[in-house]
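Treating backbone geometry as a discrete language has practical consequences that deserve illustration. In the encoding step, the backbone of a single protein was reduced to a row of integers, each denoting a local shape. The amino acid sequence and the backbone structure tokens for this protein are reproduced below.
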Amino acid sequence: MTEHMIRKQIYIPSRQDSLLKKLARQRGVSEAEVIRQALDREVQMPGIEQNSELAFAKMEKFMEERKAKYAGTGEPYKWNRDEIYEERESRWVKPNQEN
């Protein structure tokens, strides 16, 4: 049983058009198949959130944590670039990885 196809019309730069034609020729498939394969690869890449409800729950939790940490004073949240960099780095760099 074949999957139901939906027609899409897209605009791409001429450079991408040339690449698309070349890839389709090399692979012996249609240009549409090259695009379908690229979309399938894209959603399989790490970091792509497959579950939108899970993504929303993560975002909501983050916002609630920020609200609890900085709310109540009536003052806007103040930050500086160094604090933001330190916070981000603490999420990505483990202590034994530092120089």
